[in-house]
């Protein structure tokens, strides 16, 4: 028996989400259909509210509901240290460790030529301008330990080698091929504490 078209269409929408396959999409759709209509309305309203209210910080390019974001305008943060991450989720993962008090710069991706993601499509030029303007003492490259993360790290190291800034990377406590977003707090905390100067 084939599913009604409205269900097929909804399952197809869930299929577009990262890390969700057809079986999980079906499971989520059937779960949602069994929820009260009020719950579904609240879910849909929350999603639309987030889309309307969330913006990108003009300083660090993190998701925010204010400009600058709460981290950038926090006077207690260490302005001398700048942590470069690929995505907003990485900021959240690092914040949960309670081991970092500096600022962030979100590249909004990593260099990945097969997917047509080149350096000019990332917030690299803005990073250079920020380093020149704010002159932080240390730049931490907190990128995923995979091919795209490694490529981006090497590109940034070469690009910034003449800058008067100490560049470090997360310690290799993170397993190869892992993503920062999914690392446990303890592993990520140790990786931050044990970062090495390049």
TrEMBL record:
SUPFAM superfamilies in alphabetical order: Recombination protein RecR
Pfam families membership: RecR_C, RecR_HhH, RecR_ZnF, Toprim_4
Q: Could you confirm whether the keyword ATP-binding appears in this record?
A: no
> Please, one GO biological process term?
DNA recombination
Q: Where are the zinc fingers (C4-type)?
A: 57-72
* Listed GO MF terms: DNA binding; zinc ion binding
Keywords, sorted A to Z: DNA damage, DNA recombination, DNA repair, Metal-binding, Zinc, Zinc-finger
Q: Which SMART domains match?
A: TOPRIM (SM00493)
InterPro entries noted in UniProt? DNA_Rcmb_RecR, Rcmb_RecR, Rcmb_RecR_Znf, TOPRIM_dom, TOPRIM_RecR
| Residue span(s) of domain Toprim | 80-175
Check the record and name the Gene3D superfamilies matching this protein.
3.40.1360.10, RecR Domain 1 (1.10.8.420)
Under the heading HAMAP family, the entry gives:
RecR
Q: By its UniProt entry, which NCBIfam families does this protein fall under?
A: recR (TIGR00615)
Query: What function is annotated for this protein?
Result: May play a role in DNA repair. It seems to be involved in an RecBC-independent recombinational process of DNA repair. It may act with RecF and RecO.
Concerning its family, UniProt says: Belongs to the RecR family.
Q: What is this protein called?
A: Recombination protein RecR
Q: Which organism is it from?
A: Candidatus Komeilibacteria bacterium CG_4_10_14_0_8_um_filter_37_78
Native organism taxonomy: Bacteria, Candidatus Komeiliibacteriota
């Amino acid at each position: 028996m084939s599913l009604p078209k409205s269900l097929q269409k909804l399952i197809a929408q869930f299929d577009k989400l990262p890390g969700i396959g057809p079986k999980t999409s079906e499971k989520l759709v059937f779960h949602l259909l069994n929820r009260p209509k009020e719950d579904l309305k609240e879910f849909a309203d929350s999603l639309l509210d987030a889309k309307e209210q969330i913006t990108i910080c003009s300083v660090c390019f993190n998701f925010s509901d204010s400009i600058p974001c709460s981290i950038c305008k926090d006077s207690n943060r260490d302005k001398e240290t700048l942590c470069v991450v690929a995505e907003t989720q990485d900021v959240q993962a690092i914040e949960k460790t309670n081991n970092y008090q500096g600022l962030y710069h979100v590249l909004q991706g990593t260099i990945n030529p097969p997917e047509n993601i080149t350096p000019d499509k990332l917030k690299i030029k803005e990073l250079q301008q920020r380093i020149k303007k704010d002159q932080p003492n240390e730049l931490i490259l907190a990128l995923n330990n995979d091919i795209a993360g490694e490529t981006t790290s090497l590109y940034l190291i070469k690009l910034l080698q003449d800058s008067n800034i100490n560049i470090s990377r997360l310690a290799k406590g993170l397993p190869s091929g892992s993503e920062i977003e999914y690392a446990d707090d303890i592993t990520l905390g140790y990786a931050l504490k044990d970062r090495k100067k390049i």
